[in-house]
Amino acid sequence: MITSGGPSLAIAALDDAGLARARDVSSALSLPLLHEPAIPRHETDYALLLLVTDQGLGLQVTGRKAPGPVRCEFVRGKAGYRRDHGGGTGQLVAKAVGLKKTRRTLHVLDATAGLGEDAYVLAGLGCRLTLMERSPIVRALLEDGLGRAAEDPGAGPVVARMTVRPGDSIRWLEEQHEPVADVIYLDPMFPETGKAAKAKKEMALFRELVGNDDDAPALLAAALDVARYRVVVKRPRLAPPIDGPVPDLQLTGKSSRFDVYTHQKLPEGPAE
């Protein structure tokens, strides 16, 4: 996490055009601002830079031979392809949420939203999404990606069904006393085991930025208390379930698994 003992982070405007926005981001996140056109990313005292460019916000590891910045992208790349060619309700995440069992528009709370990849898939299949991400840096990337996607003819109607809610999801869920969503979706950061292949750069960056989600059992418990129909937890394929109740159903793919905890049967027809 970004603390006195963790990686340091600054906002970096790489040109004059982005300086005004960089100042706004710096103020909103209470982080220092660097402004040097084409700043050498290996010659800075900061471990991470949140870059402000004409392509949007990007989180960049510093140092020589560091990979390029991570951005939230819904228009091009994997997200755009998956939107157009992803397999509809036959996708494993769609089955886990229950889209094969109901014609109702489900409200899904993604309580560990990250960069919103799975949320975007579900929104593309007609769900209404509320996204919570407790890291303000990751949330800034997410909101930036949603803002850019809103202007795209293909992605705009999808992200219109996605709303970001600030705050820590565990604390917020524990304060609720009635169902907050039809389905609550969780994808907590799994502790490193040393056995997995080299993590993709997004996961490695997020692990450096926010650490592991060691409070995942508390998150699951809070979600189970206020989900109307089910809670869905995404896990690495061979990982044990989160400590707590035994899942009612497990759906396993090539690299991931979905643990499903059900409260009641999903309604088959549309809402009356």
TrEMBL record:
Q: What is its EC number?
A: 2.1.1.242
Q: Which key words are in the record?
A: Cytoplasm, Methyltransferase, rRNA processing, S-adenosyl-L-methionine, Transferase
The UniProt GO MF terms for this protein read: rRNA (guanine-N2-)-methyltransferase activity
Enumerate the catalysed reactions.
guanosine(1516) in 16S rRNA + S-adenosyl-L-methionine = N(2)-methylguanosine(1516) in 16S rRNA + S-adenosyl-L-homocysteine + H(+)
Q: Name one GO cellular component term.
A: cytoplasm
Subcellular location(s) of the protein: Cytoplasm
Query: What InterPro entries does the record point to?
Result: 16SrRNA_methylTrfase_J, SAM-dependent_MTases_sf
User: Where is this protein chiefly located?
Assistant: cytoplasm
Q: Which domain of life is it from?
A: Bacteria
Where S-adenosyl-L-methionine binds, per the record, is at E133, R134, D187
Entry's family note: Belongs to the methyltransferase superfamily. RsmJ family.
Which purpose does this protein serve, as stated in its record? Specifically methylates the guanosine in position 1516 of 16S rRNA.
Identify this protein by name: Ribosomal RNA small subunit methyltransferase J
- The record lists the organism as Tamilnaduibacter salinus
